[in-house]
Amino acid sequence: MSGILTIMKKELSRFFSDKRTVAGILLPGVMIYLLYTFMGSAMGSSFGVDEDYTPTVQAVALPASMEALFQQAGLPVSSIDLQGQQAAKDAITAQELDLLVIFPENFDETVAANTFAGDGESAPNIEVFYNSASTASHTVYMELTQLLDAYEAQLVNKFDINARGAGGDLATEEDSMGSFFGMMMPMLLMIFLYSGCAAVAPESIAGEKERGTIATMLITPIRRSHIAVGKILALAVISLVSAASSTIGTILALPKMMGMEGAGVEMNASIYGIQDYLLLAAVIASTVLLLVTLISILSAFAKTTKEAQTYVVPVMILVMVLGVTGMFGGGASQDLVSYLIPLYNSVQCMTGVFSFSTLTSGVLVTLAVNGVCTIAGVALLAVMFNNEKIIFSR
Amino acid sequence: MQDILEVQGLTKTFQLSAKQQKLERTKQKVRVAVDHLSFTARQGEIFGLLGPNGAGKTTTLRMLSTLIRPDSGDALLDGASVVREPDKVRSRVGFLTSELKLEDCFTPNYLFDFFSGLHRVDPAVRRKRKEELFTRFGIDRFAEVKVANLSTGMKQKVSLVISIVHNPEVIIFDEPTNGLDVLTAKVVTDFLQELRSQGKTIVVSTHIFSLIEKLCDRVGVIINGRMVVCDSLERVCDGLSLEDRFFEIYKETAGDGE
Ligand SMILES: Nc1ncnc2c1ncn2[C@@H]1O[C@H](COP(=O)(O)OP(=O)(O)O)[C@@H](O)[C@H]1O
Ligand SMILES: [Mg+2]
Q1: Which residues have their alpha-adjacent CB atom under 5 A from ion ligand 2?
Q2: Which residue, A12, A365, B99, B203, shows the most beta carbons closer than 10 Å to its own?
Q3: ipTM, interface predicted TM-score of the complex
């Protein structure tokens, strides 16, 4: 036992005593945060206009009703006469003016007379000119059409839908957040866990072979299985730290990325209870142990760290494909058999926890299956450490 | 004196990969690196394995230190078999070769404690030994410097110290002075003699005649994986210098037609 601890401590201090390796582990999380935030704000700015932007609108034959409406909506409007329309259009093309609205003569009177109902031809027409290349112009155009539609609806109101706060979406915050997290998180978590493992295991196993430092350990009486267990445990811890960094970066950045910030919608992880988090922690722990064991075994076959990094690529593809499967099927599989497949079962469990569709027996089967696979893998790794053809391959 | 190391018919063959065959311009698929090699080393002596490059010295010593397993034959170290009881052998032997590296990112102080841990050395004993050995080799001033930043000579001294953290009865040293500057080489050979005076048994391999003449009580000459002569230095030399005698032996053996 003390041998396992000695190896673990060595592996951990190897990583955590070097600022560069620590940075290498934590950096992905920071990068994800910055990238997502940047993408979110870039997307936001291309679709929205600054809050305090004042649009410029010109109108021909502005009727009194509309003047009041514009004022209410906070759209400053200046009246021009028909001769000015060409100049105004040019200004819009040049993106100096946002909008030109041409009302028919006597708009208010014609509308009030209401002699045209039901026939599409004689209804008064409002011409609106805008520039879709200008975000501001386009936004004001959309705003105005909505405004006018609403005004029209109000004139001929026969019935309303969900007016005055009646009716609404009955999905709870839990349900909508749950299905959102359930889609996204399993895949992201699997990728982060894989990345964490792939960042440290090849270096620790193949790297030690390459540098000839593992042989120095092998001539001491420490048991090979203790080296294997100590390394796997330490690598799992480091991988978890790395995955945690990426996950935190994502959680912090997601609201910005989705443009939900300020829109009153909060990413709320508190919809999950302690029990959910404990289940998730157990599943993640068993997954990371299995992944790190798998990657370590592949690394042990490689002569150099570089070679090991190419050997583990298939695992990356596998993990991504498995992660994507979690996005389909609406919640976790309720079929116990699908929990017999290592790693796939991890995705199913995570989906279950996030979307409140956990199959408890499935989680137990997952922990057992992953546990057995991990133990078998560690045993194999120990045998490999004892094999001179693998340790001293030239 | 008591035989502490008995080597009995050790044999090791390697499969040559296509790449190696090309590199060494040979069509043979297997290479017999060590061929039914036997010798004994007695407690408190320095035993030298002398042979040209490729003779099989390193392979022999790696089998004795349990890094690799013999195809056949065995070696008993203080009664423990390298084949059947590798763990016992590992606690009784200290092995040093240039292929065993220390991790760059650790300090000598950390590594001494780490390897003491692997050998289950009692902490009190460990502290005392560390102080003695670090002072003896002047490592104390560099105890907290990462291995990466040590000079080659200092690295070698640290490796030497690390290989004997557990105070082994038998010390196996492959090419002890290879690649060392004269000062460090002297420190190392002096230390080997000191260990002998403490009653330790030392096995060294080398292709340097003067090193054998200076250090060894007994010598075994290996050519092509076979032990050709094995006796006390005096009797092997038989009045000649070791160098002259070696070439005589070499000619006789080569005359056998490989
Ligand atoms: N891992 C190996 N694979 C193939 N051939 C090897 C291996 N190790 C050693 N040899 C061969 O065995 C022979 C003996 O090598 P070695 O024991 O290193 O000799 P020495 O140490 O006396 O110079 C050499 O021909 C060498 O090429
Ligand atoms: Mg050699």
Answers
A1: B 58
A2: B203
A3: 0.90
